[in-house]
Write a structure and sequence with these properties.
With 194 residues, this protein is mainly alpha-helical. Helix content is 73%, strand content 0%. The chain has eleven helices and no strands. It has helices at 2-27, 34-41, 47-52, 55-75, 80-93, 95-101, 112-130, 134-137, 141-160, 165-168, 173-185. The protein is globular and about 55 Å long.
């Protein structure tokens, strides 16, 4: 009886989140249902609603957890390029989180845990851009941030969808991302370009 109580009070939420991540990895977030989640977790159909209220609450919890993990992954990167590598690595290691995090229509935008985790991740991304010399980021650091984010997010999305399988041809995605980033950002400006 003690282990059952500990399960319901401490581990059930984690069990439900893990089952949700498995379901999302298999079928995508749009196919997720609380009834299927309960079946996967081996609990009553009411258990997920008790912890998350509804599907949106569950996906909000997935997104919040994802942003927290994402912020941690970015925090250890020494420069902007390595933050991009960490971005790609995070997507590859946490594809279900990644699918939910960047789909705001799936979660509650005003959730305090989501807002806090998202703010931490945003701060980590901006810190990488802030490390660039003025000449590299230009007059508008915000645009440099959008460019860096677009490159890393686009690469990660193409990687997860299998669209880079051919171009990578078995090569390490992280090394390829470093090369792509270097090709775009380490090249001297073209004559006459401003």
């Amino acid at each position: 009886m003690t282990s059952e109580r500990a399960y319901h009070h401490g581990d059930l939420r984690r069990t439900l989140l893990a089952a949700a991540l498995d379901a999302i990895a298999e079928d995508g977030p749009d196919a997720l249902s609380l009834r299927d989640l309960a079946r996967r977790a081996g609990v009553s159909h009411a258990a997920p609603a008790h912890h998350f209220k509804d599907r949106t609450g569950l996906l909000t919890a997935v997104a919040a957890e994802g942003y927290a993990l994402f912020a941690d992954a970015l925090a250890g990167a020494p420069d902007l390029r390595e933050r991009g590598v960490a971005y790609v690595r995070f997507a590859a290691e946490h594809p279900a989180h990644f699918q939910v995090m960047f789909r705001p229509e799936l979660h509650r935008a005003d959730d305090p845990a989501l807002l806090a985790a998202k703010a931490r991740a945003t701060d980590e991304l901006r810190a990488g851009v802030g490390e660039l010399p003025d000449a590299a980021r230009g007059e508008d650091a915000r645009l440099a941030g959008i460019a860096a984010w677009s490159l890393a997010h686009g690469f990660a999305t193409l990687l997860l969808s299998g669209n880079l399988d051919g171009p990578l041809d078995g090569r390490d995605p992280e090394a390829m991302f470093r090369s792509v980033a270097g090709f775009l950002f380490d090249r001297p400006a073209l004559p006459g370009a401003s």
